[in-house]
Specification:
Length: about 190
């Protein structure tokens, strides 16, 4: 089993690329499962404002789903996963919703899961203006949108994503896609399958 994570700024086109990858894998006859962040959110009763508890539940549910599906599927695709957790945790820490100790413990835990499970990641970034423009055009909204879709939160996310992108540029497991326009999926890359 391989795990491919899609991460990055809100409204960067992750869902579109996940759907393209899914169609590509279907053509190849590769059995795969998509774990969607919006579906995970619906299973969590803890308010997003309780950052430590919410994020712990969110990423543990992803881990549970991986365990549930790992024998049945050749590839699991994560719409947000263990690499992406780093950004959200750091923003919540900046907001004062996580202590220094909780932040370090959480990041250590996510780092362990990332190293153990993630085989490849597509990291997608768009600027805050594009995020808001696409958000206004999108019909489907996430449970967390009311909490995160404001200028301060999105600007903080964007800054941390840019720093994270610099860090991951030399990592062979992470492919960074940094464009505003629609990205043609890199589905023919042998590293995907």
């Amino acid at each position: 089993m391989k795990i491919i994570e899609f991460l990055g700024t809100p409204r960067a086109g992750k869902t579109e690329q996940i759907n393209r990858l899914s169609r590509y894998l279907n053509k190849l006859g590769i059995k795969h499962k998509i774990i969607i962040d919006r579906e995970i959110e619906k299973e969590i009763n803890t308010p997003i404002e309780k950052a430590f508890e919410y994020n712990l539940l969110f990423f543990n549910k992803i881990f549970e789903k991986i365990q549930e599906f790992k024998e049945e599927y050749e590839i699991i695709i994560l719409d947000r996963g263990f690499i992406d957790a780093e950004v959200w945790i750091n923003v919540e820490h900046q907001k004062g919703n996580l202590s220094d100790i909780d932040r370090i413990k959480f990041l250590d835990y996510m780092d362990l899961l990332q190293k153990k499970y993630i085989n490849l990641a597509f990291f997608m970034i768009v600027d805050p203006e594009t995020t808001f423009l696409r958000h206004e055009q999108k019909k489907e909204q996430s449970v967390a949108d009311d909490y995160i879709m404001n200028k301060e939160y999105i600007n903080n996310l964007h800054k941390i994503y840019l720093r994270m992108a610099d860090y991951y540029r030399t990592n062979e497991k992470v492919i960074i896609l940094d464009r505003k326009e629609s990205i043609e999926f890199l589905g023919d890359r042998k590293s995907v399958v």
